[in-house]
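> forwarded from #structure-qc
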């Protein structure tokens, strides 16, 4: 999947937070959406060219994920460790400081975004190595339903995902 589809899948995953009583969240939807979007991009740190690698800190030329992306992409192939349950566990350690400073809801949103990336990539023809380092690939869909990254089929998902995100954000904004 492309980065824009992953971002929308990540933000859409926040619907799962509807299971949590609103008074327990204590985080605004903007922060949760940003955390989910960032989490949805993180597994692609292992890609030679990824959106997350080139993200800038606002009003600077600093790319905070450039060095980790260079380390990971140089040591592993794309859809390797970071596209597995072991990678998700490693990233969970990354969210501990987020929980301390921004609260557990932001940390959960980041993790939901990360997991949404794994689910989305498991719906592609390449699948993911969920139990890395095992070579076996995991697929969420039957063979004839799998997407090709960047295909028209993926583009067809964009509108419903964007609508889902819009409804989610409007719901939060107007407390519908």
């Amino acid at each position: 999947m492309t980065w824009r589809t992953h971002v929308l899948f990540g933000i859409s995953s926040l619907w799962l937070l509807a299971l949590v009583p609103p008074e327990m969240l204590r985080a605004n939807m903007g922060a949760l959406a940003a955390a989910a979007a960032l989490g949805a991009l993180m597994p692609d740190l292992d890609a030679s060219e990824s959106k997350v690698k080139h993200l800038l800190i606002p009003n600077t030329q600093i790319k905070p994920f450039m060095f980790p992306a260079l380390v990971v992409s140089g040591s592993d192939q794309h859809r390797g460790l970071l596209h597995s349950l072991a990678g998700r566990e490693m990233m969970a350690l990354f969210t501990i400081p987020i929980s301390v400073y921004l609260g557990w809801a932001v940390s959960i949103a980041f993790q939901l975004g990360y997991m949404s990336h794994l689910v989305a990539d498991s719906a592609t023809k390449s699948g993911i190595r969920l139990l890395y380092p095992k070579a076996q690939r995991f697929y969420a869909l039957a063979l004839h339903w799998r997407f090709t990254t960047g295909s028209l089929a993926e583009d067809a998902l964009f509108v419903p995902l964007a609508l889902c995100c819009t409804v989610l954000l409007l719901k939060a904004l107007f407390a519908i």
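QC bot note: The chain has a mean pLDDT of 88. The chain has one domain: 3-174.
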